[in-house]
């Protein structure tokens, strides 16, 4: 039951951990998706940085009265909608305003209908807002031409410094070269010479570059924009793989931690089972000062206290039993003296009854001492010295000892093969003798002993044809001084300790005892189950 409870507890823990891992798996996927979304937005802002900075530079270089005409011209040229708006007329959040004040570009997606780009103009009171449906070849060519015209306004020697003003931290590479770019064919070079924008694709890299020849030729007259890299999202398979790796690492870590706790709990359970079986010297190894370590220390303290209390109890029982022997001996001596001094039949009859009571009291003291000795062995943790016992020979000795005392009964040993058991010979014979004596007190005509040997178990059955033991009382009969309310009373003899001694003997051997109904004789059937351990090497060597 304890093992089932522990298994159920750890099963619930594992289920809760599995749910936690599933939640972690979902959060990991969500985290990877959010990181991918942040990368996408950052990529858009980098692409928007250069055109918005270029438009702002042009706009700020014009007088305020020319802004509208220039913006209208750029709208037709670039297929977009640029406007200059007062900053106070827009509802912007704190972080959006902060980004604008730091010179960043805001990119907002318009419900799948394009994008809105915003950049703060110098002075901080107005911003440039551009709305476009999509990024087209017309816009790329127009922006390249616009940048080329702006650079062509400066002398060749100043063009690079002028370009650096708009390049800044833009996410698009910009450069001015003194010679045509490499990798272009003759047709593309002719188009450059004619003042056209040449676009070049890099399929292997999913990118493109724009080239423009500035008028005048010579130094710094070849403008190169790009290559502009396309956004490369994290593949779904890679996201899943990362989440699975995270899940596996987290799961393995949790499993190892829980497995260690479970192993320590299993050792604690084993120690509790050994104590319940009578091994009161069992202690738990305390490995740390955590809650399990403190639990182990509390368990050891409890076991030591139980061992101490039972030891004191056994010592008291043994001392009282020994002290009873002296007055019992004096009473027996006095009865014998009185018996020798009188020939009165009535007095002699009374003295014989007293002598019988003294013998019964003496036998009770022996039983108590045996019971206390078995309990003391358990308290002190002493292992019994086991040896191979010939069970048939042992049963025959028991029959030989008890048959003369019960002449009206047939005490039989059922036929069967030789059976050997690894046990303490004296205690095992005492247990069998107690069972047979108990059966003889309640049998009508017959008692049968049956032996059966199995690879890992020896079974000894003692059956009688008496009234049997009621099903509701079958556990009670093994308690010390227990007596039933039916025919098994004091009138049938016994002290109420014989079956308790049997149970203690079997418990000390790691076995068990039980009682049920005899299928053949109809009375009670007491069963001893004795587990067989591997034969000790020293004993095997002696037998060889």
Task: Quickly describe the structure.
With 544 residues, the protein is of the alpha+beta class. The chain has 13 helices and 15 strands.
Which labels suit this protein?
544 residues, alpha+beta, five-stranded mixed β-sheet, four-stranded antiparallel β-sheet, 53% helix, rod-shaped
> Strand-and-helix sequence, N→C?
HHEHEEEHHEHEEEHHHEHEEHEEHEEH
**Fraction of residues in β-strands:** 15-25%
Write down the overall mean pLDDT: 76
Helix count?
13
Question: Looking at the structure, what is the overall shape?
Answer: rod-shaped
Query: How large is the radius of gyration?
Result: 51 Å
Largest sheet: 5 strands, mixed
Instruction: Give the structural class.
Output: alpha+beta
Spatial strand sequence of the major β-sheet: 10-12-13-15-14
Give an account of the 3D structure.
Helices cover 53% and strands 17% of the residues. It is an alpha+beta fold and 544 residues long. α1 runs antiparallel to α7 (236-276). β3 and β4 (126-132) form a beta hairpin. Strands 10-12-13-15-14 form a five-stranded mixed beta sheet. It starts with a helix and ends with a helix.
Topology:
Elements lengths: L1 H60 L5 H12 L2 E6 L7 H8 L4 E4 L5 E6 L5 E7 L4 H16 L6 H9 L6 E4 L8 H8 L4 E5 L4 E7 L8 E8 L6 H41 L14 H51 L3 H36 L6 E4 H12 L7 E4 L6 E4 L1 H18 L3 E9 L2 E8 L33 H11 L3 E6 L6 E8 L5 H7 L1
Parallel strand pairs: 10-12
Antiparallel strand pairs: 1-4, 2-3, 3-4, 5-8, 6-7, 7-8, 9-11, 12-13, 13-15, 14-15
Helix pairs in contact: 1-7, 7-8, 8-9, 9-12, 10-11, 11-12
């Amino acid at each position: 039951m304890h093992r089932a409870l522990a298994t159920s507890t750890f099963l619930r823990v594992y289920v809760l951990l599995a749910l936690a891992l599933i939640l972690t798996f979902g959060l990991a996927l969500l985290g990877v998706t959010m990181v991918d979304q942040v990368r996408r937005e950052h990529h858009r802002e980098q692409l928007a940085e250069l055109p918005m900075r270029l438009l702002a530079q042009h706009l700020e270089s014009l007088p305020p009265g020319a802004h509208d005409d220039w913006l209208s011209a750029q709208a037709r040229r670039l297929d977009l909608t640029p406007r200059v708006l007062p900053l106070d007329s827009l509802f912007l959040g704190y972080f959006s305003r902060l980004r604008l004040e730091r010179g960043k570009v805001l990119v907002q997606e318009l419900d799948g209908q394009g994008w809105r780009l915003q950049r703060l103009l110098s002075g901080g009171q107005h911003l440039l807002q551009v709305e476009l449906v999509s990024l087209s070849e017309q816009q790329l060519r127009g922006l390249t031409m616009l940048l080329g015209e702006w650079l062509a306004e400066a002398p060749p020697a100043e063009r690079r410094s002028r370009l650096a003003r708009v390049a800044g931290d833009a996410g698009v590479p910009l450069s001015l070269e003194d010679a045509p770019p490499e990798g272009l064919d003759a047709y593309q070079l002719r188009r450059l010479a004619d003042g056209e924008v040449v676009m070049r694709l890099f399929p292997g890299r999913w990118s493109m570059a724009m080239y423009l020849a500035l008028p005048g030729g010579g130094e710094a007259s070849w403008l190169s924009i790009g290559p502009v890299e396309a956004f490369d999202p994290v593949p779904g398979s890679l996201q899943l793989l990362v989440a699975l790796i995270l899940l596996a690492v987290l799961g393995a870590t949790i499993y190892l931690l829980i497995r260690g706790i479970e192993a320590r709990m299993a050792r604690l359970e084993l120690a509790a089972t050994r104590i319940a079986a009578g091994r009161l010297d069992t202690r738990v190894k305390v490995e740390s000062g955590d809650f399990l370590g403190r639990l182990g220390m509390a368990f050891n303290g409890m076991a030591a206290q139980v061992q101490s209390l039972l030891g004191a109890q056994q010592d008291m029982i043994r001392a009282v039993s020994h002290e009873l022997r002296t007055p019992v001996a004096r009473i027996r001596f006095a009865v014998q003296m009185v018996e020798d001094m009188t020939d009165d039949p009535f007095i002699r009859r009374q003295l014989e009854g007293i002598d019988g009571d003294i013998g019964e009291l003496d036998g009770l003291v022996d039983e108590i001492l045996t019971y206390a000795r078995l309990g003391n062995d358990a308290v002190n943790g002493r292992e019994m010295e086991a040896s191979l016992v010939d069970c048939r020979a042992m049963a025959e000795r028991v029959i030989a000892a008890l048959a003369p005392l019960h002449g009206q009964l047939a005490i039989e040993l059922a036929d069967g093969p030789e059976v050997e058991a690894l046990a303490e010979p004296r205690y095992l014979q005492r247990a069998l003798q107690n069972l047979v004596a108990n059966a003889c007190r309640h049998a009508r005509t017959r008692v049968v002993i049956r032996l059966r040997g199995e690879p890992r178990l020896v079974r000894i059955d003692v059956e009688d044809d008496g009234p049997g033991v009621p099903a509701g009382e079958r556990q009670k009969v093994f308690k010390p001084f227990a007596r039933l309310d039916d025919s098994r009373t004091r009138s049938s003899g016994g002290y109420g300790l014989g079956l308790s001694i049997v149970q203690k003997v079997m418990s000390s051997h790691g076995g068990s005892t039980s009682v049920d109904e005899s299928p053949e004789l109809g009375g009670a059937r007491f069963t001893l189950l004795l587990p067989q351990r591997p034969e000790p090497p020293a004993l095997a060597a002696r037998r060889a």
